[in-house]
Amino acid sequence: MKLFFNVARHEYCIEFLDENAPYKVLIPTHGRFFIKENTQPLMFHMLVGDGLVENSLEGLEKVGEFDCGNCMHHVGKTAEGGYRMLIHNCDGQLASCFESNADFTECKVSTHGDPGIQRFGLDNSIMIAFAFSGAYHNLLLMHSSVPVKDGYGYLFQGKSGTGKSTHCELWLKHIPETVRINDDNPVVSILPNGEAWVFGSPWSGKTPIYMNVGYPIGGFLRLHQAPENKIRQLNKLEGFASILSSCSTMIWDKPSYNGICDTISKVVSRVGCYDLNCLPDRDAALLSYSTMKAALPRPCGRGTGTDC
Question: Are residues 145 and 19 part of one domain?
Answer without folding.
Answer: no
